Amino acid sequence: MLLPLLLVLAMSFASRGLYGGVQWAFSLTNYTMLFDSLYLWIYGRSLLLAVATTAMCLLIGYPLAYFIARAPTRWQGVWLLLVIIPFWTNFLVRTYAWMFLLRTEGLLNTMLLNVGVIRTPVDILYTDWAVLIGLVYGYLPFMVLPLYAAIERLNRSVVEAAWDLYANGWSVFWRVVFPLTKPGVIAGCLLVFIPSVGAYITPDLLGGAKTMMVGNLIQHEYLVIRDWPFGSAISFVLMALVVLGVLAYIKRGGIFEDVKERR
Amino acid sequence: MGTSSVEVRDLVKYHGATLAVDRCSFSIQPGEFFSLIGPSGSGKTTTLRLLAGFEQPDQGEILIEGCSMQHVAPNHRPVNLVFQNYALFPHLTVFKNVAFGLEMRRVAQSDVKSRVGAALEMVKLHDKPDRFPSQLSGGEQQRVALARALVNRPAVVLLDEPLGALDQQLRQDMRMELKAIQEQVGLTFICVTHHQEEALTMSDRVAVMNRGRILQIGSPRDIYESPGSMFVANFVGHSNQLTGRVDEVHAAVCRIHVPGLPRIVARYQANLPVPVGTPITLAIRPERLDLSRTPHESGFDNNVPARIEKAVYNGSDMHYWLRFSDQIIWTARVANARGDQKEFTAGESVYVGWNAYDGVALIQ
Questions:
Q1: Sign for the pseudo-dihedral over CA of B297, B303, B309, B312
Q2: Would you list the DSSP string of B247-260?
Q3: Which of B136, B268, B276, B361 is most buried, by CB atoms within 10 Å?
Q4: What is the pTM of this model?
Q5: Is the ipTM of this complex over 0.90?
Q6: B57 with B11: CB under 8 angstroms?
Q7: How far is B161 from chain A (nearest CA, A)?
Q8: In 3-state terms, what secondary structure has residue A247?
Q9: Residue B55 above 60 pLDDT?
């Protein structure tokens, strides 16, 4: 498992040959090139989009998981199946479906025009919003499933105790339910954030040429420009950022101290 | 005459098609320790949850300190529940657990500190405010749960099988502690348990439930000495039975004719008139029987010969199995109070003596 990683690391110190091969001479140029504002901008946007995706997945996924966990037991399997079923279809087909929905003459615009909410079609496809929608749709199950597991494991009496002790709905959620489901929240966030950062098919199809994320950049370098060493450098930096970010989040969030209440 | 602490009128609750609570009514005075006892499925836990507000009655009403609790949510009732499994917040310290109710009601921080401190002192856990529930023993967790309810000084404290998860010795100790705490704080306690002995020792009054109905409400003494039905007689303590027909009823004494035995006399306390010949059952506690090798010359209204079938040493007392006839076997308990107590052995013929007021005649 480590070998491909090491290969990428090694290659990142090399440079591009004349015809796209690899010239194995140690140099740090690939890394210094990254400090160009263009690339920093791409990293920044990718991270931002990944954070936004994670946040949206959490906002949509938590109520959904809660609803499923509190549904009658015999229906829970059905609901979970409905959440997972999109996964059974081809990823590309799903993404194309979104393109169909979001384009100017697409379903969404037609509906809004007919209802009278808008006068002219709204440009959603080929913007960052489309990419966000596509990513959220694609990764929502990764958020819902661990959340469902955590919520389902909640001791109902503990929630009842909170009500009995004069808490209102919000306090019951924020002071008791949410802290006790934190492991599920963290797991869900990680499962959504990490792949989102490196996504490239979704930004490619739904974002068009205007949206370039790190994933697209890496793909571009490898397949179009055929500067494998540079692509490797970009990949490695991305991975390092993600690992560092996750470590920092875990430390600050205190995943191993989730029994303690934070103030 | 002050307002009662809790008043329940004709409470009805269905669970699906099953009638869980069947027109129950009772009234509890402030500061009373009231217990609901009954076998599993008798509706006592459902009644408790109805009082707490976790379920709404289908019919009837609940009044707490004179105010109707119709459609009032649990967090708006002056009631706190001590859960059977304690339901402590695992992510909060002991202090934070106990303080929870106060914080929800926006009590000032300084007051919170002093009140929580006092509550923890009362349950003898003042030295562990920063522990987490997972670091406490079962008995300690139960005390935290109790403190968490008491600190709010509710009108009513509800307890669901409070001593259920504790071992025998601890349970006995906690029984006394619980009663002492209740007397100290002067709050109304309503306790649900299927351990009738516990209920008898702790309560001011006891209600016996079965299949959703309240069969009898009374002081522990009333329930034990004067059960109103065979179910109550058998549920609370052990009861010897003898079925016969009414011979005569006069001045609350009933004479029962049992074929093959001399006439039996017993207390008859129900208000219903019973014509001669009605089937009736005598219920009498094992400890009320006196055994003698010779017929009791005087003193006992009832004198029935029997044969000892089994004699078992039980530490503090002797258990004797007495056979009156082919169908009737009773148990007698004779305390080993003094060293010179006469003992009987299996096979001996004895005379069993008891007075009319020792037994109760019941029409099932």
A1: negative
A2: EEEETTEEEEE-TT
A3: B361
A4: 0.81
A5: no
A6: yes
A7: 14
A8: helix
A9: yes
Surface-to-core class of residue B41, CB atoms within 10 Å of its CB (0-12 exposed, 13-18 middle, 19+ buried): middle
How are beta strands B359-362 and B302-313 bridged, if at all?
A: unpaired
Q: Under an 8 Å CB criterion, which residues of B touch A?
A: 52-54, 73-76, 79-81, 83-85, 87-93, 96, 100-101, 104-105, 132, 134, 148, 152
How many CB atoms within 10 Å of residue B345?
Answer: 9
Contact flag B89-A162 (C-beta cutoff 8 Å): yes
Q: CA separation (Å) from A97 to A81, A86, A102?
A: 20, 12, 9
pLDDT for B341 equals: 66
CATH topology of domain B238-362: OB fold (Dihydrolipoamide Acetyltransferase, E2P) (2.40.50)
Chain A with chain B: Cβ pairs closer than 8 A: 67
What CA–CA distance (Å, rounded) separates A38 from A44?
Answer: 10
Fold for the domain defined by B6-229? Rossmann fold (3.40.50)
- Chain-chain contact of A261 with B73 (C-beta, under 8 angstroms): no
CATH 1.10.10.10 fits A2-13+24-254, yes or no: no
Give one DSSP letter per residue of A5-17, joined into a string.
Answer: HHHHHHHHTSEE-
What digits encode the pLDDT tens for the residues B198-211? 899 999 999 999 99
- Residue B218: predicted pLDDT: 94
Please report the DSSP string for B37-62 in residue order. Answer: E-STTSSHHHHHHHHHTSS--SEEEE
Residue B339 has pLDDT above 70, yes or no: no
Instruction: Look up residue B11 and give its amino acid.
Output: L
Distance set, CA B13 to CA A164, B20, B24, B59 (Å): 20, 6, 10, 7
| Contact yes or no for A166 and B152 at CB 8 A | yes
